[in-house]
Amino acid sequence: MDKSKRPVVIAGNWKMNKTPSEAKALIEELKPLVAGKTGCETVICVPYVDIAVAVEATKGTNIKVGAENVHFAESGAYTGEISAKMLTECGVEYVIIGHSERRQYFGETDTTVNQRVKAALMAGLKVILCIGEVKEQRLSGITDEVVSMQTKLDLEGIDAEQMKNVIIAYEPVWAIGTGLTATPEQADETCGVIRRTLSAMYGEALAQATVIQYGGSMNAGNAAELLAKLNVDGGLIGGASLKAHDFSVIVDAAQ
User: Fold this and answer.
1) Chain centre to alpha carbon of residue 100
2) Could you tell me which residues are beta bridge partners of residue 130?
3) What mean pLDDT is predicted for residues 163-168?
């Protein structure tokens, strides 16, 4: 399948940044910079407390709103957690699941990530599923095995129809917030491994239709070179998504 037939998705992951008033200011600055840029889907994934402001501020624009996590239960005694239905009723369209920081700091596993993916899809959310290797795994030469295993475990029980609403974000953990970036060749190669794994699971047509983002310190300076690669269909952007100009440069590169 021709890469140009796959949609390109640029999603900002704000992490634990921006109060509601700061979020509104950033969105107002961003809106004119990305207006009319229809060559890619533009998404901002914001902290829970910013969702209402973000949904209101992006009405009538080409910017979609996402959340940074979701719980797998519909309701219950899960203090501090947010369900998929809560997100959809707030106007959220996307949700990041399985980010390395959630796995590292909050004990999320492939099992709980899989449960979250299922809950999000059942509620009608579009999922940005994060997978990737740590530095020791990269140096040990087992990156391919790690990302293939994560892909299989995190998508266990997800059928081909549901996969239409799944984006996979390859995020080499050693390149997140460190200033390090996988080379375009490394990014393309590992995204290709993920695509081959999807082909074995679902068939080549679905694998070729699935959006695979790169999520390791993509920024205004390296976005164009990364996005030019055959298997890189967008970016999950961290620090650069907190600066309207830098984020808009990445959106421009995706055009």
Assistant:
1) 11
2) 169
3) 98
Amino acid at 72: F
What is d(CA 27, CA 3) in angstroms, rounded to the nearest whole number? 30
The C-alpha atoms of residue 161 and residue 164 are separated, in whole angstroms, by: 6
pTM (predicted TM-score): 0.96
User: Among positive and negative, which fits the CA dihedral 73, 77, 82, 88?
Assistant: positive
CA dist., res. 238 & res. 15, Å (int): 7
206 sits in the region (left: phi over 0; alpha: psi -120 to 50; else beta) called alpha
With a CB cutoff of 8 Å and minimum separation 6, the contacts of 77 are none
Query: For the structural domain made of 4-8+12-243, what CATH number should be given?
Result: 3.20.20.70
Catalytic one of 41, 68, 71, 99: 99
Q: Which residues contact 25 (CB under 8 A, 6 or more apart)?
A: none
The closest alpha carbon to 168, from 200, 201, 207, belongs to 207
Q: Examine the residue annotation and report whether 161 is marked as an active-site residue of this protein.
A: no
Question: Where along the chain do its domains lie?
Answer: 4-8+12-243
Q: Residue 207 corresponds to which tokens in the numbers above?
A: 């694998």
Confidence of residue 2 (pLDDT cuts 50, 70, 90): confident
Catalytic residue among 41, 68, 133, 171: 171
